[in-house]
């Protein structure tokens, strides 16, 4: 309890609470995991910046007691790229939703990955646009219903971590609101990794996705998330048919490659400014 | 007195050099004709001065990274042309709302759409004023020469910092690509207006009183930056009183410092009967026409050239309209700023447009012929 008190008082803007999220939303669980991860990683508070885009998940920035930049829809990574280059010592966490990151922000996402710039992208994936009332995103599984796909979407989803890997990201991990301790660990590992880190955090939206697709309430949705999760180690023993039903969680890939900011300043031989 | 040295320079390069002289250390952008030389020059020069050049994945990312770097405390600029200027509009609005200083250069080309990338035009006057949504204030400068480009870029950077507002430098293809003599002062002597490093003890990021400095991220002052309506502390608010006060403050700030952002100049007869009001490269043709009309023919004519086009120099035009019978407004579009001239002439003088929109400059003869018809 002492730790929780300390985290709340230090890293949350408690006066800005209660938050705007619906009952049963997973955004609070992911945000809490992020706060614990920041503390566990041991970063100085003044060096931590939260950048977010637009959508339900991006409102997290307003509740966190750091320098916080609530940018425009889809552009959080582009804002963060400029900020990181202006002050390379900053530890920047970029919170985005599935639509924000992979639809309107898709171009910035692949190019941040390509540059391998040291940003920590935390994508809260609830398979739906929540703020606008329940439209499908590029991460919504095919066939699922939304207010703009009343008969189920015909579109195939991105596999976000593979998209990032193909574009050059050097760290990819997946966790969920159903396993917040693991998620916290994954964010710590991503934050300590030098390069572009992608952490996909699956999260329930009972209000829109759950209701449209008859997934039950928050408890059922969290249970379903947990039941379908399998660790990277556990997944290695499954055949492809079994695996296709599963959500593989853990660090999916890590590799070494030159980081952009460091490379830039090394090439100029100058200090920033 | 500051030492000066004459240099032959291209307009786009003068913009880049003016920016560096004014302390700009960050450039992010996307290649587009006819502004590309600004990016090319920045790519070479910024690394030499500890600055950052980055070519982004698109125009939107260019302005977004510029805003990010500015929040990090670096003076930042981006350059583009018509199609790219359209793409940047949303984030220009963000910088206005969040009060993040930055300079956006638009080297205008013939539009709409892809238009003619290499042909000059002045079609983005109204877009520079109203391109981003919502009821916002904006500062727009329009240089007529390479020399003016250098100095107006410096003014744009300094005023953007002071007012914590984006400033738009609305160049055109002619000025961007021409080469002319510029007198470059010894760097650092007079041109960089440095903000105070001291942060007042009761600092609020969006203080209602006076001009609150922007405290860069990473300095231990935790605050929130958002494009949502926000109170003095920066946190979102939908309270009608906060909303109206915020908007009035944004507009009021510019109104209060209007005299500092308004640059105009007048040449010609002391008591003119006819005046020309114009801006950008068209000033050059107007100046040549005035030389012939006033210095050779001694007609009572004058030229008011506008280096600042927004906020519109209303007082200056109003005063002029009291003096003259006719104001001619040559523009390389189908008539944009002429509407403002009419508005502030308040019926006191006849306002006559002179438009050209074929991708060619208005010539001195075109203007002179109009004057001759008046005096004939």
Count of alpha/pi helices of chain A: 13
Structural class, from helix and strand content of chain B? alpha/beta
Q: Considering DSSP H and I runs of 4 or more, what fraction of the residues of chain A is helical?
A: 40-55%
Strand content of chain B: 15-25%
Structural class of chain A: alpha/beta
Helical coverage of chain B, percent range: 25-40%
What name goes with the CATH superfamily of chain A?
Thiamin diphosphate (ThDP)-binding fold, Pyr/PP domains
CATH architecture of the largest domain in chain B: 3-Layer(aba) Sandwich
In total, the number of domains of chain B comes to 2
Count of β-strands of chain B: 15
At the fold tier of CATH, the topology name of chain A is Rossmann fold
How does the overall form of chain B come out from the CA principal axes? globular
Describe the structure.
The complex is a heterodimer of chains A (about 270) and B (about 375). Chain A has one domain (about 1-270): Thiamin diphosphate (ThDP)-binding fold, Pyr/PP domains (Rossmann fold), CATH 3.40.50. Chain A contains 13 helices and 8 strands. Chain A has helices at about 1-10, 25-40, 60-65, 75-85, 100-105, 105-115, 160-165, 180-190, 205-210, 220-230, 230-235, 240-245, 260-270; strands spanning about 50, 65-70, 90-95, 120-125, 170-175, 195-200, 230, 245-255. In chain A, strands 2-1-3-4-6-5-8-7 form an 8-stranded mixed sheet, sandwiched between helices. In chain A, helix 3 links the parallel strand 1 and strand 2. The longest helix of chain A is centred in the first third of the chain and has 15 residues, at about 25-40. In chain B, the strands form 3 sheets. A 7-stranded mixed sheet of chain B has the order 3-2-4-5-7-6-13, sandwiched between helices. Chain B has 2 domains: about 1-260, 3-Layer(aba) Sandwich (Rossmann fold); about 265-375, Rossmann fold. Helices cover about 40% and strands about 20% of the residues of chain B. Chain B has about 375 residues and is an alpha/beta fold. Chain B contains 13 helices and 15 strands. Strand 2 of chain A pairs parallel with strand 9 (about 225) of chain B, so a sheet runs across the interface.
